[in-house]
Write a structure and sequence with these properties.
The protein is α+β, with helices and mostly antiparallel strands. Among the domains are: about 5-75 and about 220-260, ATPase, nucleotide binding domain (Nucleotidyltransferase, domain 5, 2-Layer Sandwich); about 80-210, Dna Topoisomerase Vi A Subunit, Chain: A, domain 2 (3-Layer(aba) Sandwich); about 340-425, no CATH class; about 495-605, Dna Ligase, domain 1 (2-Layer Sandwich), CATH 3.30.1490. The chain contains 17 helices and 35 strands. The strands form 9 sheets. Strands 13, 14, 15, 20, 23, 24, 31, 34 and 35 form a 9-stranded mixed beta sheet that branches. The protein has a 6-stranded mixed beta sheet with strand order 3-2-1-4-11-12, sandwiched between helices. A 4-stranded parallel beta sheet has the order 6-5-9-10, with helices on both faces. Helix 13 packs across helix 14. The longest helix is centred in the first third of the chain and has 31 residues, at about 200-230. Residues about 615-625 have low confidence and may be disordered.
Amino acid sequence: MKSVRLAVDIGGTFTDVALLNNGNIHITKVLTTHDAPERAFLEGMQTLLDEAGVKATDLDLILHGTTLATNAIIERRGAKTGLITTEGYRDVLEIADEGRFEQYDLMLKKPAPLVSRPLRLCVNERIDSSGREITPLDEESVVRAAEKLRDHNIESVAIGFIHAYSNPANEIRAREIVQEILPDVTISISSEVCPEIREYERFSTTCANAYVRPIMDGYLSRLEDKLATLGADCPLLLMTSGGGLTSVSTARAFPIRLVESGPAGGAILASRIAEQVEATSAVSFDMGGTTAKICLIEDAKPESSRTFEVARTARFKKGSGLPLRIPVIEMIEIGAGGGSIAAVNNLKQITVGPESAESMPGPACYDRGGDNPTVTDADLVLGRIEGKGFANGSMDLRDDLSKNAFDRNVGQPLDLSTINAAFGVCETIDETMTNAARVYSVERGRDLANHTMIAFGGAAPLHAARMAEKLQIPRIIIPQNAGVGSALGFLSAPISYETVRSHHVLLSKFNPAELNSLMDDIYEEVSAVLPPKANDNEVRSQERLAYARYVGQGHEVSITLPNRPYEASDADTIKQTFESKYEELFNRTLPDAEIEILTFSLKISIENNINLSSSNGTADEQADNVSDKTMSVFLPSSRQFEDIPVYHRNALQKEQSYAGPCLIQEQTTTTFVSARFDVSIDPSNNIVLDVNNS
């Protein structure tokens, strides 16, 4: 049976495209077109369709992830948004949780709310935490608020009422009233976007959803129209931050679920690779053109979370960004990519990022008007990448422009040679990423020296070896077609959706009938979002979680619940599960303390058994003649240029070991193997770097 699938990941610098055609994978990279992201999407798509000899009408499925929602929030170019809330809660977005991410900083800069105070309006209504109506909704106050927002030419409205998670009736009715007055405005209600306790996080998430919804709706509408024009009438699925694929209609209604869609695809790929190579403890390292992402993977599963911060005002500082309460794969993301701009600060120190040259104007070597040196410029000057045919042959890089940029912006201010300036930039970015990985792992009680690094993205294979040296990681896996890793992750991701519901349960008063009814309601809600069952062999799995704590505590611990109807005896089962998890985290339990559950979640997944190692990767030359050239590369170990072998990836023989230092070139990336590592190709066509004994 014919199977043709397309995956597209739009990043800040490149748009990565992968086409799976009956087991054969075709890949390409094109520069992202920020003014109209769908243009790069369609350009890359057409390139691969032509290469594979198929047409748009042959496509069975299109999978997509994009940074559009994230960038709109970071750059503050979303829709003009208004908030309608309960009387007395107008300033929740600014009061937040009253915390300070830097206790003694007198110049502390907190993130500005997405909705300004004049556009935050109150109405009369009140629901208590059990869902009981205290004050009926004053519909006239809703009409007045909607008319005032109309006068301000609002493009999107967020509605967030206190305790709406326990009873959404007032929010639903308010939406009906506002929609009558503002028929062309998108409306997001908190009981659908984030039906959980804690009004600040719920209101912040709902406002963010409203803020990006018109942009995402317009983009997806244009994309669907253009795909239909080309004859691609197959389903289009969007990657969510939680690592699953969802429908376009769901993505349009809840675009905030897409903020980490690209990185999530990479984490899914890394999980598949970890399972493939039987790495029980792994760390994924995804470095593209704009950012670097690091994620811990235990037992072939990436760590997940219910919270995420976007648009932080201070790097690495928790609490300095806007909180989003959505299912998300837990990772740390920093402004460190190939396009990260290098400069010298007032202390005469080299700084790299978080600002990026992106696709326009791009690094200096792109010859597109950029005059700032970047990490890509440094890699070019140091000889790690070949200028001709860069990014799948889409451009030729000019090292003379890179050298001029380094001399002007780094070398002269610090009295350094061009080479030392470029080397300083590489060492700075490698140390920045290494420190981020250290902090991230230590906070979770992990020692990365016991982990396998899985590196992918256009720039990661160039920097993985140096990072592994600093972190004392003994093994690096670079998967096949690593340059488009996130797009490949889309191809292997499950179709899934997760939703949550806050519902207070004391274990001492456990009511199995009440919990079964709640889980049945959540199941129906999730099932309505997923596509109908395709065939009898389709495998659908459930994951049920509860967020529990001891009474009086401020935060919860997630525990797994059985996937079955509950009985009275399950109170003891849940207690044992909670105490086991609590002791694992804190090395103790509180034997006489009452346990309560605040929130339940359910995730349904339709597994996707796509084999991504079945295409290419076969040796096409003899093992004793795999390198027909050398390149002069500046080596960190000797601090000088040396001629080292250059191998083409497909020429390397499986199970044959090659000594570093060397370069391994492939279609969309290059791997730098330092002298500390030997390299081989495993049975699944992964590049494997193992520390040698020298």
